[in-house]
């Protein structure tokens, strides 16, 4: 691995974003109709390797049901507005109308209302339907309180999602969550993250998680680089965590942990590159937030944007391009990678000569300018 000098005392390694890498077609192409995009984690199978980001601008009980019925993994934020208010629609409408200068402070106030465990259970119950996988997300800080409530209500899959999640959190005050013990005590499969390098991913895999999130929760609504100085280019991060997955398989005697790229997924081309770098699936937020029927009404934000003391994101205006169904499965009316994202992934795999996702992880990838 090439390293560079930073002054006399520090050595740096080069990392790459998705915009710097490209997929190389092989000598053989395939018919797009022959490509299988299905993806399975634990006992649950999905039509495409996409998880809808658990943020209020993308996932409401209504949109989660829509996206799940399209064959994707839809994850409701169990700490969001729908777990704080009986009817969150008026607050979502207000957020969409706020002037930029007032948005963060007003959103902090709206999200100040305590989470209601009864509403958490009700949202999980309301999402249940034959053949539908019910998934919900909690932060590491609230996992011990809210996960048992959601699981008891019938949650199929739990996501523990934070800016940076470690298997071992050290604190002088309070009792931090022991992820290995917590996940081991649950019968429900868990996806956990984010992480951004080999060692952190390996530790998370050893907790017994079914999947690991790579990244810090997205680019359009997340600004940890500005506030905390933390950023890892996603192509390098995904490739490193995919390497950790391979080594963990050897260490554990064959246990496979899924890698989900969580960040920089605004367009279908980025999703293709993430899969080519070794991801099993991608977490999509901003692309779905452009849905005319998405709850954010053309705006997008994550949990970090409403932190009561240190917001590390913002409400971002993305506009709309089509319905959620059109964004996922088409047809597309634009040529910018924001619609028919599954069709784009399918076409890219066919052009490169692959018919399934695991094979596509071996595609040649090159660096560009």
Question: Could you explain the architecture of this structure?
Answer:
It is built from 14 helices and 16 strands. It has 369 residues and is an alpha/beta fold. The longest helix has 19 residues, at 234-252. The mean pLDDT is 92. The two termini are 20 Å apart. It has one domain: Aldolase class I (TIM Barrel), CATH 3.20.20.
Write the layout of secondary structure elements.
Elements: E1 3-6, E2 10-13, E3 21-23, E4 39-41, E5 44-46, E6 50-52, H1 61-69, E7 73-77, H2 89-97, H3 100-110, H4 117-127, E8 135-138, H5 143-153, E9 157-161, H6 179-185, E10 190-195, H7 198-205, E11 211-214, H8 224-227, H9 234-252, E12 258-262, H10 268-276, E13 281-284, H11 286-289, E14 299-300, E15 316-317, H12 324-329, H13 341-352, H14 357-360, E16 365-367
Parallel strand pairs: 6-7, 6-13, 7-8, 8-9, 9-10, 10-11, 11-12, 12-13
Antiparallel strand pairs: 1-2, 3-16, 4-5, 14-15
Helix pairs in contact: 4-5, 7-9, 10-13
